[in-house]
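This protein record is not my work; I was only asked to verify it. The record follows directly below this note.
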Amino acid sequence: MTIIWTHIDDRLVHGQISCKWLQWAKADVCAVVNDDASKNKVAPVVYAMAMPSNVDLDLISIDNFAKKVKNGNYGEKRIFIIIKTPEDVLRIIEKGVKLKQANLGMLTPSPGQKGVVVSPGCWVFPHQVETYDKLNSLGVKLTVRMVPESTERDLVNIINSKVRK
């Protein structure tokens, strides 16, 4: 098993994932790792319809994903992870899953929530800066890129210049 990409996106599965990211990554499995979505009875049906025919969907809780990875249940598959928040990325790592990178695709504010736009449609919120710092200290390469063909940007540099200024 190879985790080929970790993508943080509060929309989870959507057209950019189905039509661009999964094809770019040559993924065998799209692991949608989210505790709430894994309990939703409608989400598996909707997300499965959005998957390319050559990519398996695994809609799974954080705990169960970590167990599957540790037990080698994915075999030789190439795994593309979609996760909703940087805090959840940290939770996966704390459960023993090794991640080399995490890309911030899209995070948008809730009504009244304050944050800094780091890329069109992509925000960093003050309460998440400590999480990004922790991920960075663990050796996770943090990037911002909405679609594969856009330029990859270093999230730590962006946080230092736009959020900590």
Notes: The longest strand covers residues 2-9. The helical segments are 15-25, 35-39, 43-50, 62-70, 86-94, 129-137, 155-163. The two ends are 40 Å apart (CA to CA). The domain at 2-163 is CATH 3.40.35.10 (Fructose Permease).
